[in-house]
């Protein structure tokens, strides 16, 4: 209940501050332009800082226990889960994650739903694992993905590791790394 009151108070104070700022903007013709613009800048800066701090908290609180989550500028979150002997992809990731590195683990497969909700994800690295097969819907919903690295796994053409539909919706991918797999046709 206290959290709710704090939220209402915070929004109320922000609204009062915004009204205060607009009042000075309207009286621009009566006051020194420099002082008015300075007040507007301070209000806009305070608003963006408030937003940035909220997203930052989200990055750390939703971070998987075995991973390191770091906030970077512009509300972006990077998750690094390397060298953890993971056998599967963690269940939860921050909503604003843009980069995930799962390299050097023991992941054999990726469930169809484990990445689907990460629509802001731009970089995904699953190098040096034990991946043998990828389901056709493994990367479904990763609309923002630009770089996908699956190097040094056990993916092969012989066992249909790369289903035809696997990359269908990955229209933004510019970098695809698959070196070090069993991709030779026998």
From TrEMBL:
Q: What domain of life is recorded for the organism?
A: Eukaryota
Pfam families from the UniProt entry: LRR_8 (PF13855)
Keywords, in A-Z order: Leucine-rich repeat, Membrane, Repeat, Signal, Transmembrane, Transmembrane helix
Please verify whether the record's keywords include Disulfide bond: no
Q: Where is the LRRNT domain?
A: 62-99
Q: Where is the signal peptide?
A: none
Q: Which Gene3D superfamilies match?
A: Ribonuclease Inhibitor
Q: Which SMART domains match?
A: LRR_TYP (SM00369), LRRNT (SM00013)
Residue spans crossing the bilayer: 12-28
PANTHER family noted in UniProt: LEUCINE-RICH GLIOMA-INACTIVATED PROTEIN 1-LIKE, LEUCINE-RICH REPEAT-CONTAINING PROTEIN
Put simply, this protein is called LRRNT domain-containing protein
